[in-house]
Design brief:
The chain is mainly alpha-helical and about 210 residues long. Helices cover about 50% and strands about 10% of the residues. Strands 5-6-7 form a 3-stranded parallel beta sheet, sandwiched between helices.
């Protein structure tokens, strides 16, 4: 989701800092926030501020994320049209994100794109977080798919590692990747630098 479908990185950075400033009197750089990525928000925030104030901190986090969503987040131009194209061509689309269920649902609802996904797997739904491929395995099982039937699309090193663990090809998309240079070095199966380039490739396959 983040960095692939949605331009939500700034929203995430600001949500973390909203909590950090209140509970540990500190403002983090984007790199410091990214260091907490992996588990969903509650675990990440707890790693940042400790467990003592985690419940009120999460109330603050979710409230800020929801209230500021439409001020700080965007759906990348062309994404809705691409999802509609895949849906019309009867391609199974599943979402696998490290976000928690609550923030995932907020973003899907705010952008009105929930209807495009036949399954959504969040960080709250897996036993092991990315870079584990646990979420991909759940999708394969749900639809009785073989790894060769599936393409993983993601922007991060963790997505690449998850794909390799499960034997699924990956299209790395780096139009807003915070780890762009590291992703490119991994030599993914496919690499796309903007949404149009990726969409044109898909249309060449399914049109």
């Amino acid at each position: 989701m983040d960095g692939t479908l949605t331009q939500t990185n700034q929203l995430i950075y600001d949500s973390f800092n909203h909590v950090a400033e209140k509970y540990i009197n500190k403002r983090l750089t984007p790199e410091e926030v990214i260091a907490f990525f992996g588990p969903p928000e509650k675990e990440a925030v707890e790693n940042m501020i400790g467990s003592q104030h985690i419940e009120p901190a999460m109330i603050d986090y979710y409230r800020f994320y929801h209230q500021e969503h439409n001020n700080l987040a965007l759906l990348y131009p062309g994404i809705r049209e691409m999802l509609e194209f895949l849906k019309l061509n009867k391609i199974i689309i599943a979402l696998f994100t490290g976000k928690g269920r609550r923030t995932t649902d907020i973003t899907l609802d705010q952008f009105n794109i929930n209807q495009y996904f036949q399954m959504t797997v969040t960080g709250d739904d897996v036993d092991e977080f990315k870079p584990s491929g646990n979420g991909i395995k759940k999708i394969l099982e749900k639809f009785s798919l073989k790894p060769t039937d599936v393409l993983m699309v993601g922007d991060a090193v963790a997505d690449f590692k998850a794909s390799r663990e499960t034997g699924v090809d990956i299209a790395s998309v780096v139009w807003d990747s915070y780890g762009k240079h590291d992703v490119v070095k991994l030599s993914p199966d496919y690499l796309f630098h903007d949404v149009k380039e990726f969409f044109d490739w898909l249309r060449g396959i399914y049109a």
